[in-house]
Amino acid sequence: MKTSHIRKILFTTLGFSSSILLNLNTPSFAQALVTLPELSNINSSISTPQTQQKKTDLQWVYSVAEKVIRANGLDDHPWRFEVSDKYDINAYAGELNKIVIYKGLLDQIHGDDAALAFIISHELAHHTQRHAAQQIELESSLKDRLLKEADEEFTNWIVAEKQKSDKPISIAKKDVIKQRIMLQKKQEFDNALQALSRQQEFQADEVGYKYMSTAGYDVNGGLRVFKLLSRLPSDYTVNSSHPPTPQRIAALNGIMSEYPWLTLWVDGNERLKINSQPLTFDVIEDEISLRINSRFVSK
Fold first, then answer.
1. In a structure prediction context, what are the per-residue pLDDT tens digits for the chain, which is 299 residues long?
2. Following DSSP, what letter does each residue of 190-228 receive, concatenated?
3. Is residue 269 classed as helix, strand or coil in its secondary structure?
4. How far apart are CA 110 and CA 100, in angstroms?
5. Pairing of strands 98-102, 79-84
6. What residue segments make up the domains of the chain, in order of their start?
7. Residue 176 to residue 55: CA distance in whole angstroms
8. 125, 208 in Cβ contact below 8 A?
9. Helix crossing, 113-128 with 131-164: angle to 10°?
């Protein structure tokens, strides 16, 4: 994601790859967008899984994302969405206010508006909760602290060795000790970033649930996404930046009990009634992504 390897891991939030290449057939894409504004009327206030064919993946993303954004008052600024042609079960929050969803994931949830709403809401939450900034801040402070600690530990080791014997310490032995200390610090660094990443995933699941519920989507959409992810061979490893899916399912069930869907939906439904005009969109100059405009442009 045009950032460090760690940031690539952090923001690959629903799948497990980080490529963002996208190929769309421009003529057919442009033709399909002609009727795009009509999609704002597809979803009822209380949405259930849909089985009807959507004209294009990008249209489908727009119809759900626009509603989630508007229902939650996240329309102070524009959002950009890309649908990657790569067949991966993946979606992630990229640069500021940008979300990429892979065609493979859309194919596997095809027609399920609520599942898509959860995916989009989860990625929106990564942005609104400042997860990228938090990761960068922790990464920077950790590096400074751990390097200082490593230097102090090496100096202390030298002092201790000289107290034991007047015999000069070989360069080879110094290098071994330096390497050992740095490996330990690197492990501490990786563990801290992994812990933050997993914490952020749980938070994005919680905030994402609230966003999709506020927009009126079936709350079980998130559980259906997790059920799909749990079948992936790479769903969980010890070094994964994501919590095990069973833990995420358990946490989401707890959140659903703590924050009843109806309470959230009442607020969102009122906001949608007050701001009944769907947000407008633009095809970006690169012709491979869609920008959902802020309410200021959409007036």
1. 333 333 333 334 443 333 322 233 333 333 333 333 333 333 433 444 444 554 788 899 999 999 999 999 999 999 999 999 899 999 999 999 999 999 999 999 999 999 999 999 999 999 999 999 999 999 999 999 999 999 999 999 999 999 988 889 999 999 999 999 999 999 999 999 999 999 999 999 999 999 999 999 999 999 999 999 998 876 667 778 889 999 999 999 999 999 999 989 999 999 999 999 999 998 776 667 899 999 998 56
2. HHHHHHHHHHHHHHHHHHHHHHHHHTTB-TTHHHHHHHH
3. helix
4. 16
5. parallel
6. 5-130+203-298, 133-196
7. 61
8. yes
9. 60
Full-model pTM: 0.77
The angle, 0 to 180 degrees and rounded to 10, between the axes of the packed helices 171-214 and 113-128 is 130
Sequence letter at residue 128: T
DSSP 151-178: HHHHHHHHHHHHHH-SSPPPHHHHHHHH
Residues 176, 2: Cα–Cα separation, whole Å: 34
* Burial class of 163 by CB neighbour count within 10 A (0 to 12, 13 to 18, 19+): exposed
Contacts of range 219-222, beta carbons closer than 8 Å, 24 or more positions apart: 219/114, 219/256, 219/261, 220/114, 221/49, 221/112, 221/113, 221/114, 221/115, 221/116, 221/117, 221/118, 222/114, 222/115, 222/118, 222/122, 222/252
Residue with tokens 């949830």: 109
| Token pair of 227 as six digits | 């059920």
Query: 């600024």: which residue's tokens?
Result: 77
Query: Phi and psi dihedrals of 50, rounded to 5?
Result: -105, 150
